[in-house]
Each structure stands twice: as structure tokens, then as C-alpha cells.
Fold this sequence. Notes:
The protein is α/β, with parallel strands linked by helices. Helix content is 36%, strand content 22%. It has nine helices and ten strands. It has helices at residues 13-25, 57-80, 97-108, 130-138, 175-184, 201-213, 229-240, 254-258, 261-264; strands at 3-8, 31-39, 86-94, 112-116, 144-147, 158-162, 187-194, 219-225, 244-248, 275-278. Strand 2 (31-39), helix 2 (57-80) and strand 3 form a beta-alpha-beta unit. 36% of the residues are buried.
Amino acid sequence: MKKKILLPTDFSNNAWNAIQYAIEFYKNEACDFYVLNVFNATGYALESIMVPEPGERLYDEAKEKSEQGLGKLLERLTFRDEYPDHKFFMISQFNNLLDAIKDVVDKQDIEMIIMGTKGTTDGSDVIFGSNTITVMEKSRNCPVMAIPEEASYKDLEELVFPTDYKMNFKRRELQDIIDIARMSNTSIRVLYASDGNVLNKEQENNKKLLEEYFDELTYTFHTLHNLDAPSAVRCFVESRESDMITFFNRKHSFFGSIFSRPMVKSLGRYAKVPTLALHDLRN
């Protein structure tokens, strides 16, 4: 069965790098890739109730620029042509980015969003741009993989999965991690940042559930002491040169602590490691 992957692009180098990463990541899979460019008409204030329509100059100019960009992108992708089981579909949409992504995810039954960590408007000191953070936080019906500008694809050997063992995972919520581990023959490293207290009964039970779910995969459990969760992940990934980080984006929890604005600037190795945000289905 074909996989359906959404690739948002603003035609930046980072977006192109994310597309290339996605192609290599799914090199052994039959895939339909939907390349999405969202355009709007400059000259209209964001709070304006006036919305440009087809036929108006600003709308038509923005749409033409979007379609031309997608046309050039399709030429580059067609020229590659390494993987005959990959097909590309170009989508140009007048919308804001998040609503456009939600629309395509729903209509095309997308199973993964892969995008760059920053766009053309983000500064050089930015690791995760505002658009990426918004999509990772709010596109809650589809996993989002963010590819840093410096990341080039290599076969995944190690996927880091931080958890506090407080979440009672359901097997279907972990299916994306399981699928990636199987597809890439990747080892899962479950990481816990300990505050010095022993795991309570609920945490022990949740840890045993992970053992059951990962039973047919290669996995190990790791604990780092006297570090907060973001620092533990950073140290672990840097010391082992891990290939990807994946975590569950629960509201007001781990995601918020790692990707708070001050923290983002000090992430170091995160600038080079793809990050996969998953969402618990009860949220």
C-alpha cells in the first residue's frame, strides 16, 4: 500500500533539503508525495476583512509565482528519477500554512508531514522557525518530521525516544515509531531523565507496556540522572551522535519545555538531527 507524505515548501533551501531527505527516507517504499506551496496576496493587512479573489491582480500574481515555483520544483524532482515507485503531486493553495496543511492532510489521508525547520523569513540563528513550531504543535491529527538545514540523509541507526513513563501509551499511538524502526532497521533508545526518585507503580507499568510494544524490535532503556528532560536529550544525542529524536507532543509537557523560545537557541546538536513530533490520540 502506498504511503502518502505531505511536503510543505516555501522554495527555500531548507525546504528543498527536507524534500530530498523525505525521498531518501522512503527510498524503499512506494510513495505519493504531495508538495504544497501556500501563497497569499501581499498588500492586504492580516486583520483586514478584505480577501483577494481570483481575477484580482494581487491574487493572480501570487498564484502565478506559486505555480511557477512548483513547476520548477517538479522539473528538479523529475530529473532525479531514482525511485520509480515515487510519484509527486503539486498543490498551490491560497491559505495560511496551518489551515492548508490540515486541509491536504484530511483530503488526501496524509500519514506523515515532512518539512524544514525554518523558512526564508527565519534568521540564521533560528533552529526551529515559528511556522515549523506551529505545525508541530497544532497539526495534531498527523505526525510531523522536521528536518534541519544541516541534516543530510543517512541510514538511521539510532532513534531516541524520551519519556517520563507517565503516559499510558496505546499500541496504535506508537505505530509510527514501530513502522520507522522496522522500515529502517533502526534501534530505539528509550530515554528517561530521572529526578532521583524511583519509578512509581504506574511508571513501572507503562515501562512494561513499552517492552511489550517494542518486543520484536531492537531497543534499550537509558536513564540520565540530575538533568532536566531537555538537557538529558541534548547530552544523550550529542554523546552518541544519534540520528533522530521522536517524542509525544502533549499539551503543556515535554514539547513545551524543549521548544520554549529560550531553550531552542541552546539546543546545539538539535540543529543537525531530524525531530519527529507525534500526538497522543486522546488529546
